[in-house]
Amino acid sequence: MTVRDIISWSTIIAGYSQGGCGEEAFELLSWMRREGPKPTEFALSSVLSVCGSMAILDQGRQIHTYALTVGLDQTAMIRSALINMYSKCGSIAEAEKSFSMSENDDIVSWTAMINGYAEHGYSQEAIGI
């Protein structure tokens, strides 16, 4: 690829993530952080999805910290990706913390938290929110 812009970087990262090529997605994100434009919420949410699918909590926490650093942690896309990732990694407390930071009108975050509770047998909590 001769021209690397934010769209091409993010699209390739998402493609790797959706195609089950998690390691490649992480490598490209690292490369993007070193040599390319600042990663978008689309790229970060794709990599967070990989973290959840592969249950790699430490890597997910690192991406979360990076999102905080660059100011993308308050977007609905990142918040819901964080809730999903923490839930899939079995860290319901961290999912709840991310959920508590979301706005009440963010239906995607609500759905992610309800699913997280349901996946781990917290039916009363799922009904309660």
Automatic annotation (TrEMBL):
GO molecular function: RNA binding
Listed InterPro entries: PPR_At4g14850-like_plant, PPR_rpt, TPR-like_helical_dom_sf
Segments annotated as PPR repeats: 5-39
Repeat is among the record's keywords: yes
Keyword Repeat: yes
A Pfam short name: PPR_2
Gene Ontology BP terms: RNA modification
Protein name, UniProt field: Pentatricopeptide repeat-containing protein
Species the sequence originates in: Sesamum angustifolium
